[in-house]
Amino acid sequence: MDPIAHLGLATAAFLATHYVSSTPLRPVLVKSLGEQAYLGAYVAVSFITLGWMIWAYRKAPAVPLWQAPGVKTWPLVVMALSFVLLACGLLTRNPGAVRQERALQADQPVRGILRITRHPMMWAIALWALVHVVARGDAASLVFFGGFFLLALSGTALIDARKGRELGEGWRRFAAATSNVPFWAITAGRNRLHLAEIGWWRIVAGLALYAAVLALHPWLFGVKPY
After folding, report:
1. Which of 67, 125, 160, 219 could make a disulfide contact with 152, Cβ separation 3.0–4.6 Å?
2. What value does the mean pLDDT take over residues 131-139?
């Protein structure tokens, strides 16, 4: 099989694995296997397809598609923001995250980074993927990182739909006070920015993680980021 086609197949399998959780098949599997077994199987299959995807990407040849001056340095800036979003998302209770639905019962469920977007981790992945597609400019990267970009953006809509079905009015109130697209709710006057709520320690944690990955990038991924 052509290496790029092989990568496309692996990427499609990875995406299909993640989309299952937003289809009517999910409750059927949960009922059949039990929630713990379903989650265990979901994680295992996700890692297997991710490993296949990474292996196929490393085997794919470099087929240039475009060359734009200056874009090679874009990830150095964009990834700092991506890691801050990731850290803030991981360290903030979010009703949209797995097993954090009880956060809707808090007096103020919309706080910190959730005032900017209710899907900070998904937008972190989207930024990471998009900037790598643009900066690398080859066919394999378009398929590999493009797959993550598609998953992240479509995932925000799928999470909204599933949470709306499962959590009902509580989620609808939460969604009305927040936005998927960063800063949209603030721009529309449905929320206000409170930097103090985000927590400087979360921002510092994100930047520290960014610095660590930047330093280890050649050893982790075999590519110098600058």
Report:
1. 125
2. 94
Tokens of 117: 């977007």
Task: Report whether 140 contacts 57 (CB < 8 A).
Answer: yes
Question: ∠ CA 77-138-53 to the nearest 5 degrees?
Answer: 90
Whether the CB-CB separation of 152 and 122 falls below 8 Å is answered with yes
* Stated pTM of the model: 0.92
Q: Is 5 left (phi over 0), alpha (psi -120 to 50) or beta?
A: alpha
Q: Tell me what pLDDT residue 95 has.
A: 92
Question: Which burial class, exposed, middle or buried, applies to 146 when counting CB atoms under 10 A from its CB (0-12, 13-18, 19+)?
Answer: middle
Asked if pLDDT for residue 68 goes beyond 90, the answer is no
Helix (H, G, I), strand (E, B) or coil at 181: coil
pLDDT value, residue 222:
77
What is the rounded distance in angstroms from the CA atom of residue 90 to the CA atom of residue 63?
Answer: 36
Q: What residue ranges do the domains of the chain occupy?
A: 1-61, 64-221
